[in-house]
Design a protein that fits this description.
The structure is a single chain. It contains three helices and no strands. The model has no long low-confidence stretch (mean pLDDT about 95). The protein is elongated and about 60 Å long. Helix content is about 80%, strand content about 0%.
């Protein structure tokens, strides 16, 4: 157990951050999964900006790497382009 007040606070903060990051990571994964499961091009095009915004926010806050966000966005664009 923690011996200092500051360490106890650090534990509380890290737990809160962990839960926050977990929530947004799961939200991102679900949004990407939902977009990849779409078969209608118009629906996918309408949903893409929201997913893109979420990925950019996560990259800006260093929850994911910028290159990972770019790779996911690129693969989603390629997927949408292939839809008929």
């Amino acid at each position: 157990m923690a011996n200092h007040k500051a360490t106890e606070k650090e534990i509380r903060q890290s737990e809160a951050r962990r839960l926050h990051n977990r929530y947004y990571a799961k939200t991102m994964r679900n949004a990407v999964r939902k977009l990849r499961s779409m078969t209608n091009k118009e629906e996918a095009l309408a949903a893409y900006p929201a997913v893109q915004k979420l990925l950019d926010k996560m990259a800006k806050k260093n929850m994911i790497h910028q290159n990972k966000a770019a790779n996911i966005k690129s693969s989603l664009c390629a997927y949408i382009a292939k839809l008929a």
